[in-house]
Every structure is written in C-alpha cells, then in structure tokens.
Amino acid sequence: MTNPDPMAEIRASFFIECEELLEAMQDGLQTMDDGQQDSETINVVFRAVHSIKGGAGAFGLEPLVRFAHRYETVMDQVRSETLAITSDLLKLFFRAADHLSDLVRLCRDDMDIPQAEGDAILAELDLHAGATPADEEDEDIDFQPLGLSLDLDFGDDDNTTGTSSYRITFAPATEMFETGNDAVPILRALADLGDCTTTCDAERVPALASLAPETPYLSWTVMLSTTAAIDEITSVFEFVDGLCTFAIEPVDNEVGFSDEAFPDLPPLDLLPEPEEVELPPLDMLPEPAEQISAPVEDTPVVAPKNEKPARTAPASPNAVVRVDLDRIERLVNLVGELVINQAMLAQSLESTTLSPHSDAMRGLGEFQRLTRDIQDSVMMIRAQPVKSMFQRMSRIVREASAAVGKDVRLVTDGENTEVDKTVIERLADPLTHMIRNAVDHGLEDTDARIAAGKPSQGQVRLSAAHRSGRVVIEIKDDGGGINRPRVKQIAIDKGLIPADSTLSDSEIDNLLFLPGFSTAATVSDLSGRGVGMDVVRTAIQALSGRISISSTKGEGTTFSISLPLTLAVLDGMVIKVADETLVIPLNVVTETLTLRADNLDEIQPGLAVVRVRGSMVPLFDLGRHLGYRKQKETYVDDIVLLISKEDGNQAALIVDEIQDQRQVVIKGLDDNFYRAPGIAAATILGDGQIALILDPSDIVTQAAQDAGHPNVPQKLEA
Hints:
The structure is a single chain. This protein has 718 residues and is an alpha+beta fold. The protein folds into five domains: 6-137, HPT domain (Four Helix Bundle (Hemerythrin (Met), subunit A)); 164-291, CATH 3.30.70.260; 327-378; 386-564, 2-Layer Sandwich (Heat Shock Protein 90); 569-707, CATH 2.40.50.180. Helix content is 37%, strand content 21%. The protein is built from 20 helices and 22 strands. Strands 14-18-19-17-16-15 form a six-stranded mixed β-sheet. Strands 6-8-9-11-10 form a five-stranded mixed β-sheet, with helices on one face. The chain is globular. 30% of the residues are buried.
C-alpha cells in the first residue's frame, strides 16, 4: 500500500481554505456595498486576497498569484485611503472577486485558464491603481523556498530623527508552520517599516539526534526604529494571530544593543541538554500573557492619540476536522438503520407481557433517547448554512443584470439558516433559474420603474427561514408583478390550455411551470426557451419540496420554496387508511378530532367543510383521493387530521385509525419509481413493513383540483 502524497493533501487543504477566504471576501465586499466601509471590513477583504496569493505562490499557481497580486495592490490603496471607494470601484471589486473564485476553481481542477476576461479586469484594476501592466511586470513575484539565517539583518543601523524605537519579541508555535506560514515574511515585513536589527535565539535547538522537525525551537528579538504606529507594527502579525506569541515594547530612541540596555528583557525558556531529558512537548512556549512584559523601567511611555496599546495574539479558534462526505453519508445510513432496529425492538417488547416498569422496558426508553440524541447530532453534522449558496446567487444577479442592462441589487436574509447539505447542493440550479427569471422578467426596465414612481434600482430579496419543521426559501422582486391576461393568452397561443378555459389567479400563475411556456419575446442567453421554470418545479419536487407563487400587480412577485430540513429521518404519525399503513410528517399535523354531525357541512354535492372554532376548513377523504376506496355515505364519527400548510391555510384529512407516533427513516423512491402525486418517500416500520410517507399539502392541492373545490374562506362566522 502506497502512502498518500503529503503535498497533495496540503494542496487540497489550501483549496478548502480558499473557499473560506472567498466567502469572507464576499461578505466583506457586501458589507462595503451596504455602506459600512470601515477599516476592519476593508482589511478583511485585503487579508483574504493576500492569503490566497501567498498560498498560491507556495504551489506555483502563477496565474492565480499574478491576478491576486494586482487585486491586492488596489485593495491596499483603498486600505491606506489613497484611493476612494466609489460605486464603480465596488462593482469592479465584485467582478474581480468572481474572477478570483473562477481562478481558484480552475487551478484546483487543473483546467486551462482563459486570459481575456482576466486581462480586462486587470486593465481596469491598473487604471484605478494608476499603474500599467508594464509597471507590475517589473516586480518579479517569486515564491522560491529561502534558506533562513540565524541572524537576520534587514537594515542599516542609522537612526532617523523623530522616529520611535521598539523591541519586538516573536516566538512561533507549532501550529504556525503546520498552516504553511513562515517566520521570514514576518521579519521582512518588520524590516520594511524602518531600520531594524534582528537577533535569533537558537539556544533551544537540541542535538541533531533529538531534533523534532515539527517543533519550533527558534525565537527572535527585533530592535526596530520606525515612524510607523504600533497598530501598523501589530498588523504584521495579523495573519498569524493565535499561531505565535509576540510582544511589542517601546524603548528609548537611543537604541543600544548591549545587555545593559535591556535589563528587564525576559529570558527565554531554555531546554535542558538533549542527552539528559526527552524532547519537551510542543506547548512549552510561554503563554501570551507572559510574553508581554512591562515597559523598560524608568522609561515613561506616552501613547500617541488614537493609538491602540500593544496586545498579544488572541487564542486559537476551535479546531475543525474535515471529513470526507462519503464517511458522513455512511454514518447517516448507519444511524438510519439504528432507528429502524430500535423501532423493531420496541415493537417486539411492546407485544410481550412485560411490565412498563421492568428493566427491559426502562432500558428500551433509555435506548430510544440515546438513538434520538445520536440522530440529532448526526443531522447537525450534515446541516450547513445556506450562506454559501446565497453568495453564489449574488454573482448570478450581477451577471444577469449586466446582461439585460438593468440596475439590480440582491438583498439576503436568513443566511445562517441551516439545511441538509444534500438539499443545498441540489437547490443551486433551481435558484439560479429563478434569480435569472426575476431579473429578466420580474423587474421592469429603468425607464418603466421611474415612470411608475419606483427607485431606478430594482431589488431582488432572497430569504430563508424555518417554518413548521421545514425550510422556506423565498425569492421576491419589487417589479410589476405577473401580467395574468398576457400569461393566459400565451398559454392559449402555445396550445397549452384550451381557449375557453376559466382559470383562477393561482391557476394562471402556475401556468409558468408548464413545459414549453415562456413570456420572452426572443431567445437570449437568459431566457426564452421555455424550460427554466419547468426544470425548477421538477428539481424542487425531487427534493420532496413544493413551490408556490404569489403576485401583486405593480408591486412584485414572490416565489416560495418549501423543503424538508433533512432527507434522512423525520418524526411521523403512523395511520391506517382502508387497511393500508401510511406515514404523515408529524410537523404538519396541528390537531386531531372526531367528526360530529353538527360541525360537518356540505356546501355542494361532494364538497364538504368542517367547522373548527369558527373556521371552515376544506375536508378531504384521504382513502378516496388515494384510490383505496370509494366515497363513503357518511363520515360522522370518523377521525380527522387538521393539516397546516406553508401558506398559512388549513385542510382536514379523513383517516380510519391513528396507530403510533415514531421516528421513521426516509427511503427515496426516485431511483426506482416515477414520482407519484402526494407521495414523498417510503420507510420501513418496526415490523419490517414498508409504508409510504405522504406529502399532505400535495395531496390537498391535487384533491382540490380534481374535485373543483372552491377557495373556502378561512374565517366565517359560526
């Protein structure tokens, strides 16, 4: 068995970190676009670009290095306040960030890199930076490994009048080198700030036989004479915060280098002789609080105005372990089998004559609690915030608005809403279609918006939230709304509906999902082929989700997507209908009741409602609509499940028996069967029986369409 290539693993880790850096960069740019253009936000973007450039250089990714370098140059001018932030500059930064993301992806996949788009963006960056490509080429960006001298001298000894002097102690931790950082760039950055002399302490280096390559034995003391403020010196260590200990102490301007000049210099911990003791553990470095000592005695220090005091690096964040997705999927499957076996064991014990207080039954209860805790923990591993997907949509909006010549802004809400990772991955394409549709069709042209008294800039709002055990994602625009007469006429012209059709507003809106339907006059890069919204609905249904439309003329349109939080396990209610065992998601059941003659009304033959506390709720026979039986003569004394839909409306489903409430493992049917209306998935019960998991909202919608059920008002006086 061959050992994996360690460089390949490091390279893969670099690209994973790039994704995190790109996400931070997009967040920073969005914050700047929102008007918060403080120095910290600008530094976030700058550090992200700088870190990508440094890592790319280590792997010889020259195209990525050069683009990031030019991008970084302009960001540095913004950071130093020599270049003002304008709307055009922010748009350029977003384009550069998008291209940087593309370069990372292409370099990761070892694909050819197109030059045209990158060169155009670089030309605009150079224009803002006041440089030309030729100027940039004069600087040779070389990231070759360098030998490290134990005594580094980066400047001469001349003092500059009016400067301040500082003593800087710097000691790397093991984690610093594990993350690909090095001491040399830090020491060089300090040298760039002024005149300095660097002394390396190598007394901790053991004999060769006892030397551990991963252990940092060296530390440095830098005597720096500079005009820079302490904040600027501290910023040199920003990239290694938590990965080293450092201290910055002001000293007299008369810099001396004898031992007498620094009577209070704290001694470094020295290792005993290697032959006498074993190699010390990696955490032998002094704590950060011990590294920063008081200023040199008898040297009063007056901090300049607006200057922050010296600080130590913050503690390291919680460690993160990256695990292959296949391993997580295997764990999820095993947890699913555990839930099934727990249900089988429970059913077996319940069929016995054991007392509920017996050791076996108490053990079963504890087993059920542990199973649920394990299942919840595993689901949390799979859950991810929708933030990364929302950031991708920001780019879609920018590209689509540029293609159609509209000024459009994307506003996001609920970015931290967590959804199953599989749902996020499979939702990207449908959302892309819907965002493009909102920009191309939903929003009016600039002239039309101004004429209607609206702002010239259109807005698309993308939001996510948890509702009733599901995640609801909404795409809302502030455009002109759906032109329903035009939509209906297009459907008639294309032969999608009969010419004499009488349709409600909701039914007309749903025509947008028909295959081949399009309101576009011409075929373009964005629309016109009549496949977009049909693909959207198919993809959403494949995720056991639903999509609905609401539109107000002159105000805009909202597309609402309702999806399950997870595709693995759910809490279900086991019911009987016409001797068939079925499962309904428990989160949609708000109430159970028994029908009485006095709360049952028939508004017309075959169409009934049930009165619930002054409300009239449409009533449907679940067995009849599923094709299990014919309509019953009477439903008095039957059991009814009150179902809550995502739109806030309710419906009542007639069932024969409620058997149990339990966790069930979702088994998808898409790989082996065609999707059936009203059927979300299947599961295996405790007795080994296969039961279908229903989609109550879909059943109600289909039943209402089949029966011609009117839109019954939700509130009527009793």
